[in-house]
Specification:
alpha/beta; 8 helices; 7 strands; globular
Length: 257
């Protein structure tokens, strides 16, 4: 299947490691130019250098997506370097853990709630708004938001807190709303709801919690970042040209709509 992503310009937030890193490299391997955005410039630069080694153009950008100034400057840098924005992947996200496990609702501090909402939800808003400044005149583009199984269920094996669940539920609803607003401009907006994926976040969870989670996954394993990246490529490409406003599950059967 030809995804036809050659010379497309893709921005991936949280691209310095984990799922974001896999998404960046997947785009590059399909011929796209990639902007690697991360709050940690060192990791963003490392991934960007790997993309250049593949033979694609890439720039690393240090940005806190919860900061509108950072996001605005990032988009301006992309336009200066590439002249257009074809794809935005809102992947940056945080999920605070208490001693490797769940944070109960009555334990959530106000500042922690604000930080999670700022990165996971406000960051998705800011990046989408700023990218659309350039996508709307083009009358073409694709936005893929990384939500979570936690945004679809408030129980189950995921060791998350209410702040994370609420933020990801917001991403799902935001995806539907924005998709309906920009469809007539030729822009598609979709989301992905991963279950447990083998990343650094999994390592931040206790071994006992991971074991309990694994027992509840019908496929009997955690997902791989590369599997999420493949789904992102599909939704970002014209192969999925008639799909918008959708949130696709990728969780090994843990949760089914």
């Amino acid at each position: 299947m030809d995804l036809n992503l050659n010379d497309k310009v893709a921005i991936v937030t949280g691209g310095g490691r984990g799922i974001g890193e896999a998404i960046c490299l997947a785009f590059a391997n399909e011929g796209a130019h990639v902007v690697v955005s991360d709050v940690d410039f060192t990791t963003a630069n490392e991934v960007s250098e790997r993309i250049k080694a593949i033979g694609r153009r890439s720039i690393p950008v240090q940005a806190d997506v919860s900061n509108l100034g950072d996001v605005t400057r990032m988009m301006e840098s992309v336009m200066k370097e590439f002249g257009r924005i074809d794809i935005l992947v809102n992947n940056a996200g945080i999920s605070p853990k208490k001693e490797g496990g769940q944070t109960l609702t009555w334990e959530i501090l106000s500042e922690e709630w604000d930080k999670v909402m700022g990165v996971n939800l406000k960051g998705t808003l800011f990046c989408s708004q700023q990218a659309l400044k350039y996508m709307l005149p083009q009358r073409k583009g694709s936005i893929v938001n990384i939500a979570s199984i936690a945004g679809k269920q408030s129980y189950g094996p995921m060791p998350t807190g209410a702040h994370y669940n609420v933020s990801k539920a917001g991403v799902i609803n935001f995806t539907q709303r924005l998709a309906s607003e920009v469809a007539s401009y030729g822009i598609r907006v979709n989301a992905i709801a991963p279950g447990k994926i083998e990343t650094f976040l999994a390592k931040a969870t206790s071994e006992e919690m991971n074991k309990t989670t694994l027992e509840k996954i019908p496929m009997g394993r955690f997902g791989k970042p590369e599997e999420v990246a493949d789904l992102v490529l599909f939704l970002a490409s014209e192969v999925s040209g008639y799909i918008t406003g959708e949130t696709v599950n990728i969780n090994g059967g843990t949760f089914m709509d």
